[in-house]
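[step 3/7] inverse_fold.run input=structure_tokens len=224
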């Protein structure tokens, strides 16, 4: 089967049958998930887990205590996540926003309108679309689809969207085709991360991939 017009719902069912439910995003609280969304920028989840473990050991998975921690100290604690000085500043910016605008009340923050809250998050230095949507979907249980490098790669290599498509075009492509439910957005993105990590990395490993049957007859198409 080589169908570039395959339904994304068919893709979802294929991935779910292959991998089963992913129960993603790993985290014990909305705050932990928010922190993870920042720390996972440009690094592996294993490194994020080490950084979060350090935060737990330092008893810093608390908005107030995080807000009072000096950026230099925070940077050393999250060192395993890579780019730790930069991420400490980004994390401090996010924490400061929640503390000053919402008095440290994460539940109150997530009760606000999705579009407004997304615009707020994107206005925080160091928070881009992927991080903002990860926070909204996984920490806030709000209905937005997360696009990451795996998502773009899977769609473009299978010919389901143009190579030139940007974040919002890819997001719109999903939103227009799949059920508009938080749980579905969550599960679909998690499954894409799983197949992307195992098969659709920068160097593709198509043999055995559950989506191999959907590749164009000419094989993987790369932009260069």
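[step 3/7] decode complete -> sequence:
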């Amino acid at each position: 089967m080589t169908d570039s017009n395959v339904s994304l719902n068919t893709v979802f069912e294929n991935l779910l049958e292959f991998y089963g439910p992913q129960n993603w995003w790993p985290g014990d609280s909305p705050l932990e998930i928010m922190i993870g969304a920042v720390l996972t920028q440009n690094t592996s989840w294993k490194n994020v887990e080490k950084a979060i473990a350090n935060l737990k050991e330092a008893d810093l998975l608390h908005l107030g205590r995080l807000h009072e921690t000096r950026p230099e100290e925070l940077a050393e604690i999250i060192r395993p996540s890579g780019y730790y000085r930069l991420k400490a500043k980004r994390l401090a910016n996010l924490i400061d926003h929640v503390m000053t605008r919402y008095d440290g009340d994460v539940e109150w923050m997530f009760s606000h309108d999705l579009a407004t809250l997304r615009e707020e998050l994107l206005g925080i230095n160091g928070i881009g679309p992927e991080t903002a949507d990860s926070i909204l979907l996984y920490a806030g249980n709000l209905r937005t689809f997360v696009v990451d490098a795996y998502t773009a790669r899977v769609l473009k290599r299978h010919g389901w969207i143009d190579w030139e498509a940007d974040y919002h075009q890819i997001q719109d492509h999903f939103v227009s085709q799949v059920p508009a439910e938080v749980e579905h957005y969550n599960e679909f993105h998690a499954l894409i991360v799983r197949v992307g990590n195992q098969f659709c990395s920068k160097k593709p490993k198509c043999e055995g991939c559950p989506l191999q049957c959907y590749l164009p007859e000419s094989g993987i198409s790369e932009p260069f």
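[step 4/7] annotate
The two ends are 25 Å apart (CA to CA).
Residues 153 and 200 are 7 Å apart (CA to CA).
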